[in-house]
């Protein structure tokens, strides 16, 4: 199912500034769409509006072409995983998982599906426990399993992996993506983690102050950010913005760490620090007072002078 927003607005009562400020957007059927933005940019509010947990002050929300703005959450065929897990506290993990399935599948099949997904998410051993006996990350995985088992037409996920540590985060996001792809579930996924966004998105929207600043594939947003905000928010490390004067240009230029070559070139800088990144090093080079991150294949000496060539840069006026 597609999800469409037309000039959607939300101003919370007592607030002067809108949390969501006139958003127009179409998420296509089967698409994995990521919303990325800093804290307070309106990401959660946007998801709550789509789910029906909040009512917009203006605009239209359509699911599969039909306006749903007046429909309650239960009528929207949406599966949600939010930061707070909303599990039933007096039911075991297994009972929490099979509840949405029992009606359609019967108990035996519901249990076997719940067991299968629990194994994939590493929560099989907790099936007999109560939510209060689990850690935050374990509860989060139960909530995720429950949402997956419901097989919704649309998935809304708000930082569903925020409580997981790094290796589990990577495997859980792969599982989400696999299930999403296999079942063609339209997914809108909120995160403030740009690495996660780049890894899983078909398209990504960058939000700030209740507005969408740019929408595109991860490659488009990475290679061609529309402004300095997007340039410095997306990428690892973020694009470095410096005065164009170093190249004799007006305005500012943005440089990515992989677009600089050390060892040759007209510009001279001084290495101020070096980080080991596993497959390469990230050197910080002071160029006329600006410290620029540069990827290099060897560990340059801190304090040494290096020649620099800019292979590519983005101009901002
Ligand atoms: N229930 C509420 N009542 C009043 N203001 C709210 C409410 N919920 C959110 N806000 C405000 O709306 C704005 C957007 O908040 P929202 O939670 O949507 O942002 P976010 O991008 O999801 O942030 P985070 O990444 O920190 O979760 C913020 O300024 C926030 O303070």
TrEMBL record:
A Pfam family it matches: TOBE_2
Domain ABC transporter: 3-234
Keywords per UniProt: ATP-binding, Cell membrane, Membrane, Nucleotide-binding, Translocase, Transport
GO CC annotations on file: ATP-binding cassette (ABC) transporter complex, substrate-binding subunit-containing
Classification via Gene3D superfamilies: 2.40.50.100, P-loop containing nucleotide triphosphate hydrolases
Domain of life: Archaea
Xref: InterPro entries: AAA+_ATPase (IPR003593), ABC_transporter-like_ATP-bd (IPR003439), ABC_transporter-like_CS (IPR017871), ABC_transpr_FbpC (IPR015853), ABC_transpr_MalK/UgpC-like (IPR047641), Mo/tungstate-bd_C_term_dom (IPR008995), P-loop_NTPase (IPR027417), Transp-assoc_OB_typ2 (IPR013611)
Keyword Flavoprotein on entry: no
Name of protein: Sugar ABC transporter ATP-binding protein
UniProt source species: Stygiolobus caldivivus
């Amino acid at each position: 199912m597609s999800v469409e927003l037309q000039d959607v607005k939300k101003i919370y009562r007592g607030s002067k500034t809108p949390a969501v400020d006139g958003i127009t957007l179409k998420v296509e059927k089967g698409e994995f769409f990521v919303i990325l933005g800093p804290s307070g940019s309106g990401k959660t509010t946007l998801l709550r509006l789509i789910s029906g947990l909040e009512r917009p002050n203006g605009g239209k929300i359509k699911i599969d072409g039909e306006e749903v703005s007046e429909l309650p959450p239960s009528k929207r065929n949406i599966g949600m995983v939010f930061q707070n897990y909303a599990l039933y506290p007096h039911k075991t993990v297994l009972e929490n998982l099979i509840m949405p399935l029992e009606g359609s599948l019967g108990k035996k099949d519901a249990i076997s599906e719940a067991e299968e997904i629990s194994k994939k998410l590493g929560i099989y051993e907790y099936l007999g426990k109560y939510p209060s006996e689990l850690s935050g990350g374990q509860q989060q995985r139960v909530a995720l399993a429950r949402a997956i088992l419901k097989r919704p037409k649309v998935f809304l996920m708000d930082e569903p992996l925020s409580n997981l540590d790094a290796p589990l985060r990577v495997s859980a996001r792969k599982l989400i993506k696999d299930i999403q792809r296999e079942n063609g579930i339209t997914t809108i996924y909120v995160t403030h983690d740009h690495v996660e966004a780049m890894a899983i998105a078909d398209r990504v929207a960058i939000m700030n102050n209740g507005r969408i600043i740019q929408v595109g594939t991860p490659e488009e947003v990475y290679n061609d950010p529309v402004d300095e905000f997007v340039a410095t928010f997306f990428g690892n490390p973020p694009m470095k913005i410096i005065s164009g004067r170093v190249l004799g240009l007006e305005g500012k230029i943005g440089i990515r760490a992989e677009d600089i070559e050390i060892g040759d070139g007209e510009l001279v800088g001084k290495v101020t620090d070096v980080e080991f990144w596993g497959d390469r090093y990230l050197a910080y080079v002071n160029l006329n007072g600006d410290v620029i991150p540069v990827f290099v294949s060897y560990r340059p000496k801190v304090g040494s002078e290096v020649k620099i060539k800019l292979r590519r840069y983005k101009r901002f006026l």
